[in-house]
Amino acid sequence: MGSCARLLLLWGCSAVAAGLSGVAGMSSRCEKACNPQMGNLALGRKLWADTTCGQNATELYCFYSENTDLTCRQPKCDKCNAAQPHLAHLPAAMADSSFKFPRTWWQSAEDVHREKIQLDLEAEFYFTHLIMVFKSPRPAAMVLDRSQDFGKTWKPYKYFATNCSATFGLEDDVVKKGAICTSRYSSPFPCTGGEVIFRALSPPYDMENPYSAKAQEQLKITNLRVQLLKQQFCPCQRNDLNAKPQHFTHYAIYDFIVKGSCFCNGHADQCVPVDGFRPVKAPGVFHVPKTNHISHRGSLNTVTISPDGSLYASGSKDGQAMLWDLNKGKHLYMLDIGDIIITLCFSPNHYWLCAVMGPSIKIWDLKGKIIVDELKQEDISPSNKAEPPQ
């Protein structure tokens, strides 16, 4: 495997072969089995939550955060009011672009100990993984459920708890591989920015053939639900004698990213809305662009979608990378890469785009539209493992 390919794998990206005869969502002809592009299923759809901060009146809330050495910072306090846009923290904030709006979040009402978040889909979809980024400390106990019959019945995907046996009477997958409960994502640290990650085909659901009927059945959903069952406070609060507990008793989530694609049995390479469906915010819900790339002067080699499903990039033999806003369905701008583009990949953590051209890689900062780094074949030797960009 070449050095460039290794770096892409460290980024969590997979290369798209050059010389594609068709692009997902761009062509209706499929010579073999087709699969639509994956994206964030929550984008453009309504997320439901039981409560919202300030839904009845203005509320005061506070947060702790810690330094890199885990020493505590002073708490920060503010007000929330769901009726005032500049003070509102609505459920929709969990599904907006984490690239464009990294500091928006949903927050529950004050002094709520149990909460529920739910995504209702209008048809069957394939669900591959969930990423949640919390602003508050992660829950001490929560459950991820799915429905395949539009909410009539529910099945648990995974249980999360600081103590699986005491909370749910279940074994912990940290101790027993394949257990349906885990303590991996239930630490109170970090007090803000903690992640919860679930992969639909991870143990106990991993399978040798991810395309088997059994695997497909495991991935199919019509609804996804997260039950937040038990809060835990930031450990910094124990050292603050002036803290009022009620101001910290809430859940808050930056991002709720539901990765998946529409369900089409391999017979189509694009998704279309069902009759009567109206996206909440934007036409980019189905993760396919509405353009035919007429601005590219060479044949299309690669396409990629940002981790939050809001941006789309295409690369061509003409050495140009084109950026598209999937929310608005419009072309943004073009980057002159300078050579034939083999593959493109978005950084999972920054507003960056990686472009591979033969033996070299260019990394672009999309905010400034500038090159932040260029790696060549000789820069990455097999004996020196490349650190993935942050």
From TrEMBL:
Keywords: Disulfide bond, Laminin EGF-like domain, Signal, WD repeat. Residues 30-261 form the Laminin N-terminal domain. InterPro entries: Laminin/Netrin_ECM, Laminin_N, WD40/YVTN_repeat-like_dom_sf, WD40_repeat_dom_sf, WD40_rpt. It comes from the Eukaryota. GO terms for biological process: animal organ morphogenesis; axon guidance; basement membrane assembly; cell migration; substrate adhesion-dependent cell spreading; tissue development. WD repeats lie at residues 293-334. Residues 1-19 form the signal peptide. One of its GO terms (cellular component) is laminin complex. This is Netrin-4. It comes from Myotis brandtii. The lineage of its organism: Eukaryota, Metazoa, Chordata, Craniata, Vertebrata.
